[in-house]
Amino acid sequence: MPIIEMHFLEGRSLEDKARVAEKVTAAVVEALDCSPSTVRILITEHKHGEFYVAGKAGRASDQAAGNMPGQ
């Protein structure tokens, strides 16, 4: 039974989570030739101050764009 663990910054809608779960399930079913009913997906949300990239709090996309405070 494949178990997929995903971590997001808080704020995504239930619709967003359902959409990604559906697409990840489809990809796992295709890659592993297993039944969709065996795929488990765990989503954990984190507050913005609990996520760091290169030692700095924030989203990776913000850092790549130079949008981090103090940059």
Description:
The protein has 71 residues and is α+β, with helices and mostly antiparallel strands. 34% of the residues lie in helices and 25% in strands. The protein has one domain (3-64): Macrophage Migration Inhibitory Factor. The strands form 2 sheets. Strands 1-2 form a two-stranded parallel sheet. The protein has a two-stranded antiparallel ribbon with strand order 3-4. The longest helix has 19 residues, at 14-32. The mean pLDDT is 86.
Cα radius of gyration in angstroms: 15 Å
Provide the spatial order of strands within the biggest beta sheet. Answer: 1-2
Are there runs of 5+ residues with pLDDT below 50, and where? none
Order of helices and strands: EHEEEH
Q: In the CATH hierarchy, what is the class?
A: Alpha Beta
Give the helix tally: 2
Reported for the largest beta sheet, the result is: 2 strands, parallel
User: Helical content, roughly?
Assistant: 25-40%
Shape: elongated
* Alpha-beta classification: alpha+beta
Instruction: Bin the strand percentage.
Output: 25-35%
